[in-house]
Design goal:
Cytochrome p450; 3-stranded antiparallel β-sheet; 50% helix; 12% strand; globular; binds protoporphyrin IX containing FE; monooxygenase; Cytochrome P450; Cyt_P450_CS; iron
């Protein structure tokens, strides 16, 4: 559902706009987020970029982001890479259009799976998966952080959501599901920044691989569903799949779309958040020390922490908040006007017109975040949060279509980070410089740590 771009006559754009092709100088299909950050940094809170005949309006300022959070005036819009993902997730929660009836139906069926009491029920399985990570890291040596965080989070959503183990920590190589998922995310991202002619000339093989990847993802998910239908509902309490199958509210194709959506949305972003947190910890020994003092005080000698002991790790949680400020692993979302309106008292938007909130810029807006590049978890101390304007920190999106899995991600990540910090000395390679890889989501590339039992 392509909507026309808003009136950009009053909106700045990069200096070197080239006739016909637009603002493509200095742009790679591999790093659209970081390129746009670079180009937008000096252009102010709103700017546009043009790719051929398509112009996109970006929001990099905190106050316009807060305004776009007004649910009465604005709503989610499916743009660029997210719209591309419809091929994979169909009318699943993440990629459903606002007006599709299956969004409300699935949202209502799944909400009970994300309450506080649901998190309490998931806790033991999350502890088990962390135990598998620890089993691997106890051997010591050099570990590939992003790969192991992906193992951890995929395993967690697979088991907790669907009773389906991927055996991630028993494999030498990533599960084929992860490889197919990475391949299809990469393709979806590149496709949304590709010249149509280039796609025609060079794209056939890539397109075929994409189709094969998407078909494989669907195959795995059908297997997950078949296994559950054969075994009947899970014994202890209904998981996501039980809720969907028992509700009768969702058709077979939609259930498949939801499972695929949750397997992808439920792990890539959390894995990146943990990896960035570990990256910043590896360079901030004072933060590590403070976190360890908290973990020791709250967890004591407990072999495995209880649910409440995780929720009490307030400082560890702030480390994650701060990592998600600097590198929000879902780096943007689009908002469309519900009716004709004027953004920032200056930029007219007709109903349906949209802009893309670019979170890594929004979260570095110096009018809200002093010394924005500095890693400082205390920005999320309660008094600092109270002193800040609302709706300027949005790693989990906004409004009705905000992330349903926020508590799930934060519980899982706080538990994992607490466990790792308590158990290991983490030594980075002093030569490593942060490289952020983009596959619709963000994560550190090539980041390794040497781990040793404390
Ligand atoms: C640190 C981890 C996570 C981050 C940063 C994150 C971020 C986001 C963001 C920004 C959105 C809104 C996108 C938009 O407006 O277009 C979103 C939606 C969503 N997320 Fe997450 N997410 C995380 C973890 C999870 C987890 C663990 C799950 C599932 C267990 C999950 C499931 C979803 C779903 C299903 C939606 C669509 C919700 C709807 O439209 O009804 N996410 N997430």
């Amino acid at each position: 559902m392509a909507a026309p771009v808003m009136d950009t006559s009053a909106i700045p754009h990069p200096r070197w706009r080239v006739p016909l092709i637009g603002d493509v100088i200095g742009t790679s299909r591999r790093t659209p987020v970081q390129d746009t950050m670079r180009q937008g940094r000096d252009l102010g809170p709103i700017f546009s970029r043009r790719f051929l005949d398509r112009e996109i309006v970006f929001i990099g300022g905190a106050h316009l982001t807060a305004e776009l959070s007004d649910e009465k005036r604005f709503a989610k819009h499916l743009a660029l890479g997210v719209e591309e993902l419809r091929v994979i997730g169909g009318d699943g929660l993440f990629t459903a259009y606002n007006e599709e009836p299956n969004w409300r139906a699935a949202h209502d069926v799944l909400m009970p799976a994300f309450t506080q009491s649901a998190m309490r029920a998931y806790h033991p399985a999350m502890v088990d998966v962390v135990g598998e990570l620890v089993g691997k890291w106890d051997r010591g040596g050099v570990v590939d952080v992003s790969a192991d965080m992906t193992n951890l989070t995929l395993e967690t959503i697979g088991r907790v959501g669907f009773g389906y183990p991927f055996d991630s920590f028993r494999r030498e190589q990533a599960h084929p599901f992860v490889r197919a998922m990475m391949g299809s995310l990469r393709h979806a991202q590149r496709k949304s920044f590709q010249f149509p002619l280039a796609a025609k000339l060079f794209g056939r093989a890539a397109e075929e691989r994409y189709r094969a990847d998407v078909a494989y993802l669907a195959e795995v998910v059908d297997e997950v569903i078949r296994a559950r239908v054969a075994s009947g509902p899970s014994a202890d309490r209904p998981d996501l799949l039980d809720l969907m199958l028992a509700s009768g509210a969702l058709d077979e194709v939609n259930v498949r779309n939801q499972v695929i959506t949750f397997l992808i949305a439920g792990h890539e972003t959390t894995s990146g958040a943990l990896s960035f947190a570990l990256y910043y910890l590896s360079r901030n020994p004072a933060v590590v020390e403070k976190a360890r003092a908290e973990i020791d005080a709250v967890w004591g000698e407990a072999e495995a922490p209880a649910f409440e002991q995780v929720t009490k790790l307030r400082y560890v949680r702030r480390i994650l908040d701060e990592a998600l400020r600097l590198w929000p692993t879902a780096p943007g979302y689009a908002r469309e006007a519900r009716t004709d309106t004027v953004l920032g008292a200056r930029y007219p938007m007709r109903a349906g017109q949209w802009a893309l909130v670019l979170l890594p810029l929004v979260h570095r807006d110096p009018t809200v975040w002093p010394e924005p590049e500095r890693f400082d978890p205390d920005r999320f101390a309660p008094e600092a949060v109270r002193a800040r304007a609302g709706h300027v920190y949005k790693p989990f999106g906004t409004g009705e279509r905000a992330c349903i899995g926020r508590q799930f991600a934060l519980h899982e990540a706080t538990l994992a980070l607490g466990s790792v910090l308590r158990r290991y000395e983490l030594t980075p390679d002093p030569e490593y410089r942060l490289r952020v890889v983009e596959m619709l989501t963000l994560k550190p590339e090539g980041f390794r740590l040497t781990v040793r039992r404390r």
